[in-house]
User: Fold this.
Amino acid sequence: MAQVELKNVTKIYDKNKIIDDVNLTVKDKEFLVLVGSSGCGKSTLLRMIAGLEDITQGEIYIDDKCVNNVHPKERDIAFVFQNYALYPHMSVYENMAFPLKMRKMSKKDIDIKVKEAAEILNLKDLLQRKPRQLSGGQRQRVALGRAIVRNPKVFLMDEPLSNLDAKLRVQMRAEIKKLHKKLQTTFIYVTHDQTEALTMGDRIAVIDKGIIQQIGTPLEVYNNPVNKFVGGFLGSPSMNFIPSEIKDGCIRINNSSFNLTEEQKNKLLGKKQVLVAIRPESFNSLNSNFSFEVNVDISEILGNEQIVYFKTNEILSSAILPTNVDTSKPVKLSINTNDLLFFDVENETRIY
Assistant:
């Protein structure tokens, strides 16, 4: 088991910084998720930890040992790829046994380890099948099994569920979480899927343009985003950001206004404009103290709830409401102003 530490890690391609001075500590036995949009640098960061990409600047430590110049196979890590990377001519058993054969382990020990991993992953009845005879979820479990048999210090996973359908992704998320709990090993998991990040990680690191924007538990990052990017990236539908003017201690939304609390006034002192942020699910709060009417442009029914889209201060916004709300006429939306967040209009950082 091992702690992974990155110190001032930078990666430059053709004078472009893909990873920009990243400092990150992944605790022993922790499940850390690196999440961000495509092209943000998260997979490059993972490949640098694995040794599959060179580091331009900085240091990477695994189990307190600097591994900058250590060959990937000597780092005692296991890498699970997006495309499974199974050998098509080998059986499930042979695929899982392959890394142990390369270590020249005895046939008896290989057999024990492969069967133990197959038991954990519910693959014992599939050991003689070839990859082409397996479903996507089964192939991904084989890829996990091939990593498990090595008993590595660190598991690195690069979007391992992105090729699966929605239902299977939900199932595999649960299986990977159970696997982490059972193995008690350090996991670093890369995804662009915010749902995976929020449901799987002990902590999540949100990355944008090669920079870690925020690190924390899923609830910390979701409820207390440090900037507009983090707030808007996590959540579906995303957080609403409403440009608003502050006048005489009041903020106006559509044709209604509310008074700022003394604490809010102190934090927003000197500001004439602000981005008011509210999650779609925060409308119609039981403890609401402010309401305003909107005309709904579009409504999307999702079983027992609906997502409605409307204009607030000329900006398209959304709310999650019960399906029994009639959207053919103006809808009254209620919020608790104590739950609002405020962001700077210019640098988009969180003010309050």
